[in-house]
């Protein structure tokens, strides 16, 4: 009968699961892949106060994972406990759970690992005379035996997942697992710069000697990152954020390079990663991701790390406050840092080109979008930092001249600055050269335009060297910031079209454009539906000048499709501003008059984040006299 099975299933008695089965089930969550074993074991070593941790990996961790530390060790009596479920030395009562300071606390890692691999622990407690070894295989624990080693613990895992062939089958290629292990070790190393790490994997040894946070960032992320990175430090309402921000121009194709830590714990929390990315949103292309190291310190009671067995996710009591501080502090630091472009963008010859001398950065004031605000308020709140007007003769933008450069300038008459001619009768001075047209170059870090090269590059002479500007990229940034200003002022400058432009589109596109007419109007683009198959554009943003209106409108219609329901207004506004800026900018290839070139240079100097266009590409590079001399082997 069909019912028999039902009945017998329903009448089966409730039974406690066998401990070994529980371990296997839990192992599925704690030890997903070899890298998670590495993480658990290194965290145990850190919890034990290790100053030095040696990691050896064979066959992507499936063959062998061995972690040796010089921490306080485990007493012989405690060894059997350490490998049994829910035994921990780190948490004694529920009160402790709300303010966890150690990495581990669940007492799950060792038994889980012992359930799916061959585990052996050799440890000597700091107060013991000798070391002891305990082995667990397929969940069966053998009694401890005497062994030899100094104070500290060595944990060895062989044949990981041999007990769970299904898991073994689902592991990715060896190369992927190896990469995951090295990423895990990098994160752990960043979390504990005072601890020395050695990783031996595939015959390669990577050393992270103990040092400061900055030194560790250099070891892990490379000297280029360390030299360029912008230091991050912010504090609000008991939340402290510190770290290092990679330049927007050194963005990467994956989100893997945002390293986040909460109270010293490695976290891989999507909300935090997204907040970091949102901080860069304005200065980075949509498909790029920042390289950044971000440490968050917060009252342990205000954060829950017990969300998932792997302890990589966190829940904050006040998520908005944490997110807000991450986004706004990153934005402010990026805007305040002098416009610079990554050196990594250039090849060996361009390595000499940098973006010093940088215009003094305008003060930034970025505001987080607030869900309580109406459309107008939110648009007003969403705005770019207001550039401070540079006072002429104020000398606020000083060059940092490379040593010797000033002397060089004095000894060589600058070709573009002709010796002042004898005063003409009546006290009038002779017409100046290019430099004089641009005024005192000390006020103008980007100097005076000398020429336009290949239709797109402005060559300018500065006191300290030369600057090469990508006119399209630079102008795009300026237009972008102008659009944001216009939107924020709530009275966007628009120009009425003499003859309204009617653009034929698919009915869906007309509907979508009409639904977002408010967003476009915030920038001065006024459009409405014109029957079911067209829109009519009556006004366009003044900042865009003359441009191909139908092309922009069609592109905007395409983009709305990408937005989705959930996209915040702030993100939509950025998106639209970026698209408009691209359409309204001086094209590469357009010849510019000297006044136009100089005007562009002056605009770059006063525009926030002008060091890169809104795709994150640099807008200008500089070559100091010092560097020019090096190129010509004069020094
Ligand atoms: P948890 O870290 O959550 O306490 P684990 O299963 O990872 O659970 O470890 C169980 C216990 O074993 C720890 O509480 C600790 O007392 C001990 N232990 C594990 N690894 C080490 C180590 N490397 N040094 C000292 N003690 C260790
Ligand atoms: Mg642990």
UniProtKB/TrEMBL annotation:
Q: Name one Pfam family in it.
A: HATPase_c_3
Every copy of the MutL C-terminal dimerisation domain together lies at 449-592
Kindly list the GO CC terms recorded for this protein.
Answer: mismatch repair complex
Q: Which Gene3D superfamilies match?
A: 3.30.230.10, Histidine kinase-like ATPase, C-terminal domain, MutL, C-terminal domain, dimerisation subdomain, MutL, C-terminal domain, regulatory subdomain
Question: Which residue intervals are annotated with compositional bias (Low complexity) in the record?
Answer: 424-433
For this protein, the parts annotated as crossing the membrane are none
For this chain, one GO molecular function annotation is: ATP-dependent DNA damage sensor activity
The Gene Ontology biological process annotation of the record reads:
mismatch repair
| PROSITE patterns attached to this UniProt entry | DNA_MISMATCH_REPAIR_1 (PS00058)
Q: Which keywords does UniProt give here? A: DNA damage, DNA repair, Endonuclease, Hydrolase, Nuclease
Q: Where is this region: Disordered?
A: 381-442
Residues spanning the signal sequence: none
Superkingdom is: Bacteria
Domain annotation DNA mismatch repair protein S5: ranges: 217-335
What this protein is reported to do is described as:
This protein is involved in the repair of mismatches in DNA. It is required for dam-dependent methyl-directed DNA mismatch repair. May act as a 'molecular matchmaker', a protein that promotes the formation of a stable complex between two or more DNA-binding proteins in an ATP-dependent manner without itself being part of a final effector complex.
Show the NCBIfam families listed in the entry.
mutl, PRK00095.2-4
Protein family per UniProt: Belongs to the DNA mismatch repair MutL/HexB family.
Name of this chain's protein: DNA mismatch repair protein MutL
What organism is recorded for this protein? Acuticoccus mangrovi
| Classification of source organism | Bacteria, Pseudomonadati, Pseudomonadota, Alphaproteobacteria, Hyphomicrobiales
